[in-house]
Amino acid sequence: MAELVREELHSSVTDPVAASMNFLNEIAGRFPAAISLAAGRPFDEFYAVEDVERYLAAYLGHLRAQGIPEARVRQAILQYGRTNGQLGTMIARMLEVDEDIRVPAESVMVTSGCQEAMIIALRGLCAHPRDVVLAAEPCYVGFTGAARVLGITVVPVPETAQGLRPETVARVAREVRASGRRPRALYVVSNFANPSGVSLSADVRRGLIETAADEDLLILEDDPYGLFGLDDRRSPVLKSLDTGQRVIYLGSFAKSVFPGARVGFLVADQTVVSAAGHRSLLADELSTVKSMITVNTSPIAQAVIGGVLVSCGYSLRSANQEKIAFYRSNLRALLAALERHFSDPAITWNSPSGGFFAVLDAPVRADEKLLERSARDYGVLWTPMSFFYLDGGGSHAIRLSCSALTADQIDEGVRRLAALIADVRS
Known about the structure:
This protein has about 425 residues and is α/β, with parallel strands linked by helices. Helices cover about 40% and strands about 15% of the residues. The protein has helices spanning about 15-30, 50-65, 70-80, 90-100, 115-125, 140-150, 165-180, 200-215, 280-290, 300-310, 315-320, 320-340, 370-380, 405-425; strands at about 35, 110, 130-135, 155-160, 180-190, 220, 245-250, 265, 270-275, 280, 350, 355-360, 380, 385, 395-400. Strands 2-8-7-6-5-3-4 form a 7-stranded mixed β-sheet, with helices on both faces. A 4-stranded antiparallel β-sheet has the order 11-12-15-14, covered by helices on one side. The chain is globular.
């Protein structure tokens, strides 16, 4: 029987961050009755299997209403399709309606979840071993994990309590250049970031655009939570401020529609000029990368999402009013529960203005050992913030998620967490 040496496999296989997330999943599997303040998934009760058939029928009706022959309708759903997908016009219209982003449909690539969009953007931009990407830290592990799979170095840019500072981004970019490497892009979640819950102010957003131009960076803007603010006030997404085509926008229908569709997208409207002077869109150039990964995104899944967009008049903000209200209520319930169950001034937490996450800081070591004890003896799960740091950090901080629970479950989970921390400290 063949045996392989684990140390000879790619470093992404043995990546400690990925191993930590696998550990979290394993703990959840061993203690299924535990209340999970760890899961950042959407609330299950918003979805019905019948929705798939309904939205597929809506998309088919849309195609037929345009007079498309039945043979072509069948091909659009059941055959291989255009690498960059068939929803570009719909997504471009949605972005204009909801986010005041105006881009040509040809600049939209439909991907198999936002994770694929990250991989395609990273692979296309980072061509040389000296190319690196910057990322706000703490950082979503899906992004750092994607970079590791590709062998691309991620250089952390530390967040403040208010998020990234443009001057810090500039300083880190210059330090990277001084070391002989080339910073290609900056990854940032502009609204209610995972894991910190932090949003960028309007001034910081404009400052980041200016810094990107000054430092010759592209910005990879990830915006999965932007719909779910605590109120109706909105800051402009970076892409809507992007007059110099510095921003590649990464989007997903996982939170706004349903995650099982596995449909995301990227907007890459940058101009690419060849040595011979030929000009093209970056989205078209990146299609070669996608064609070697997934060939094209499932046309059936695209059709379901297309049916949603047709049905809601291309406004996910309008279509998600029930979800927006629910997640607002849940975040308020989480913050109220923290206030109710923690009175020690040594234990603090942030108060995000939306999204799924908040961060608790406590004078205990929030590691895998404590998490296992928490699940086994107290019946509550959470995520160590250390999982989201590249070179150490977050050892006494906990990410709490409120998206997948009821308000009563949130309160009981926080009560159990408070009991755990009190017992550890005593």
